[in-house]
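Tutorial handout. Part one gives the primary structure; part two gives the three-dimensional structure as tokens.
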Amino acid sequence: MGLKANHDSPHSGNSPHHNHNTHHGVIKEDRLSMYRNGREKDVTITKYRPIEVVEYVPPLEAIKHGKGENSMRYIFGDLPLDDFEETKIKEMLAYLKSRHVSLKNTAFSDKHLLLRYLQGNEYDFVKAWDDIKRHVRWRQNFRMIEDKHKLEKLLKNGYCYIHGRDKYMRPIIIFRAKAFLDGEDPDNIIHVVYYWFEFVITKMLSWNRVEQWRVIMDLQDVTFYNAPVSLLKDIAINLQRNYRGYLAQMSFINTPIIFWGLWQAISLVLPQSTRDKIVLCTSDYRSELLKCINENQLEKKYHGTAPNVSSFIEPILPTLCIKET
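Part two.
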């Protein structure tokens, strides 16, 4: 089977107001319920999820920051929620009930998952509900690349890859924007991104301990004339819509001055809570990265001590040390 794209971009025709994925007020789960079948709770020790990650005790600032509407939760799992979060969930359920919508027997009956969408939409119930419906449509139509040879070929191109973990044990996903310029179908590149996101969620995170990733977007060799603005915007949209609450921070590095203007066009599609997680850096980014990542988790080209990567089909995971946390 080939790819079946459904990025739910602003031009995809999938308006959030088309309620064809609900029936008598109940979400049709289909692939969504299959998706949340417990894999995100797996804490088995593997080469991708070592004991340092499984036994990691996150500090408070890695779990949640702030209070009330200005708070930001980073780890959801099934941790206790505060009074504000519980209240907003009850209010959201009351709003849905007034619309004759039930979340019973759906993935969204998990209040922690519901909270991801509430927080991601700044507790706007209408936007959160539209977002949930849009996500369910996307997940129902979501397909991975099933041709293994095609997938391996795409992975070898290194559009994005995994290298190391940050000081909070969060996997680091690195995007090489210059690789986007090789003429490959943007749809295929997006599916490589999906592949790594799904890989991280199911194989590298640790329930209640490590539930986010960090992104480094390398814009080296990107200019005003070749900047893949449309693709970068598509990645940003899909990241914030379909993987709510998973992004810890995105650092743009080697950012040409001209891109700062282009960024305004990209950032318009993102909520403030997502924009707050994004940092733009020029070629002088060493101190910014080392604030949150240890040197041995970064390649030499990024001012770290790890060898530069030339093979991208497997995560590269330098040795972790408990003291790093």
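Part three, for discussion. The two ends are 43 Å apart (CA to CA). Strands lie at 22-23, 26-27, 64-65, 72-73, 160-165, 171-176, 213-218, 247-253, 278-280.
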